[in-house]
Design goal:
The protein is mainly α. The longest helix is centred in the middle third of the chain and has 41 residues.
């Protein structure tokens, strides 16, 4: 793809712009999480609701940072594969054929 890096820079490529398939296991679990959060925030006392929401928000922050780390490490792994494939000539054996 010509201009891939430029397109990525300008935000025309969204690697995280994905959704789940309708009726998938993930979608079902997301619905359960959403429903339970709503039920708990409606039934908890004000103090406990705030503690629960602090917990939910903290978990969201940790999950976001973990996803970012996985994205970066995956990108680096892909770059290492590319480098090793197209640039590096390092091999475990020496080529004595002279080619």
């Amino acid at each position: 793809m010509a201009g891939f890096i430029e397109q990525f820079y300008y935000g025309n490529i969204e690697p995280q712009s994905r959704s789940t398939r309708q009726h998938s296991r993930v979608q079902k679990q997301m619905r359960i999480l959403s429903d339970r959060e709503e039920e708990l925030t409606e039934t908890l006392t004000a103090d406990k609701r705030q503690k629960f929401l602090d917990y939910v928000n903290a978990w969201g922050e940790i999950n976001s940072e973990s996803n970012l780390d996985s994205f970066i490490m995956g990108f680096r792994l892909g770059a290492a594969f590319t480098y090793d494939t197209f640039v590096s000539t390092e091999a475990p054996f020496t080529d004595y054929s002279g080619t």
